[in-house]
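Structure in, sequence out. Go:
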């Protein structure tokens, strides 16, 4: 069953750290089987929606998404980001 990695960026406090993270995280997560489905600012928000950057990545399973997070390549990306952003990451099983 597929799983979805959902990232919501509450704040980006350091654009340089964010750029370094992006340069490392995209290839790391792609190499781990992730497929980027959406990323960027919303075109429209409804109800209590927030106008914040969001990223949606599909994996083959919850286990694959967890494993991607724990790879050395992704850990390097996290180290590059450091305190450059405040965000929420969730791994959600597909229906």
């Amino acid at each position: 069953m597929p799983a979805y990695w959902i990232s919501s960026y509450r704040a980006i406090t350091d654009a340089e750290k964010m750029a370094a993270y992006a340069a490392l995280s995209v290839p790391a997560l792609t190499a781990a089987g992730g497929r980027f489905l959406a990323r960027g600012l919303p075109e429209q928000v409804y109800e209590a929606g927030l106008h914040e950057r969001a990223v949606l990545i599909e994996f083959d399973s919850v286990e694959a998404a967890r494993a991607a997070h724990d790879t050395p390549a992704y850990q390097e990306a996290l180290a590059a980001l450091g305190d450059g952003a405040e965000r929420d990451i969730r791994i959600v099983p597909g229906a």
